[in-house]
Amino acid sequence: MTQRAYNFAAGPATLPETVLEQVQREMMALPGPKASILEISHRSPTFKEIIEAAEKNIRTLLGISDDYSVLFLQGGGRLLFSMIPMNLLTESQPSADYILTGSWGKAAIKEAKKLGSMNVAWDGADDKYTYTPSDTDLKLDPNAAYVHYTCNETIEGVQFAAEPQAGQVPLVCDASSDFMHKPLPIDRYGMIYACAQKNMGPAGVSIVVVRKNLLERSSDELGSYLDFKLHADQGSLMNTAPTFAIYVVRLVTDWLLNDIGGLDKMYSINQAKAKMLYDTIDSSNGFYDGHARKDSRSLMNVSFRLPSEELTTQFIDQADAADLTALAGHRSVGGVRASIYNAMPVAGVEALRDFMIDFRDKHAK
């Protein structure tokens, strides 16, 4: 078998090797139906068990009560950027607050503005999105339909250490790039949504955790697929579900529960991995320059620059040759980005750290 590289891509991203091995074993035929997950009906007893197990695992890991629905949807974050205002804005609450800490927050409000008048509660653009705001920085409207924020910005590598305080207004969170990286006080949220392809599985499914009383805001005028309540009422099976993606989500959540031992342990591992890279940046005498302010650094996406574009290109090319792949920063920011999601093994981060130290020693003046 081809030797696997350490894949630092921002998404689709690395998956646990044990999960990939199980997918490989079961690809031709699942136990029971003796057919591939790619072939079985989304309404079959086998898939019913898979989607119910995936939901149960998510509820167990995050401590989600029956006050919330867990949905498995298609369309990705881009569609959810529109579905959220479609479902949560009302005639009496036609506006929402958006906290902008990076590129994905900007993308979310761009879509929301097509559907209503949105209030920018805070925007970090003047400081090039290098940090997250404190609660006192926020200009929130107490009559807003909801407060939306992106808890981890993959491009800039900034992350909230704790959720912002929204008072009585429902808090809506795009957790696409750090979902399940640590425990959450789920009851503080009205809705959390996440595309699977960074921390939870392959591309093709998004997970939405939504408080049931918010589902009552939906309008009969919405197209059926755009209505969260209809998806909840039909158990995420309004149309043909992305069966393979949900199957892998089930396996990844099994891994989090059984192999890792839950989100407290996952969080400790993630903190240790990120510390290795940030310590290397901080001890480089300026050779590596981190994008994010220290108090807002992401545990999932470590973004940094080198002294020149020439050195950056050499770094990325030589790392790739050493099987440390997909380290180029996003085109809008440049530099280097190491995405170290849950499934990135400690050994992969150690290998990158050692490469960074060696590269600095060879090229620092």
From TrEMBL:
Aminotransferase class V domain segment(s): 6-352
Main location: cytoplasm
Class of this enzyme: transferase
Amino acids binding pyridoxal 5'-phosphate: G77, R78, W104, T154, D174, Q197, N239, T240
Residues where L-glutamate binds: R43
Catalytic activity: 4-(phosphooxy)-L-threonine + 2-oxoglutarate = (R)-3-hydroxy-2-oxo-4-phosphooxybutanoate + L-glutamate; O-phospho-L-serine + 2-oxoglutarate = 3-phosphooxypyruvate + L-glutamate
List of residues that carry N6-(pyridoxal phosphate)lysine: K198
GO CC field: cytoplasm
Record-level GO BP terms: L-serine biosynthetic process; pyridoxine biosynthetic process
Alphabetical keyword list: Amino-acid biosynthesis, Aminotransferase, Cytoplasm, Pyridoxal phosphate, Pyridoxine biosynthesis, Serine biosynthesis, Transferase
Pathway listed: Amino-acid biosynthesis; L-serine biosynthesis; L-serine from 3-phospho-D-glycerate: step 2/3; Cofactor biosynthesis; pyridoxine 5'-phosphate biosynthesis; pyridoxine 5'-phosphate from D-erythrose 4-phosphate: step 3/5
Oligomer and partners: Homodimer.
Name used for this protein in its record: Phosphoserine aminotransferase
Species in which this protein is naturally found: Bythopirellula goksoeyrii
Source taxonomy: Bacteria, Pseudomonadati, Planctomycetota, Planctomycetia, Pirellulales
Gene for this chain: serC
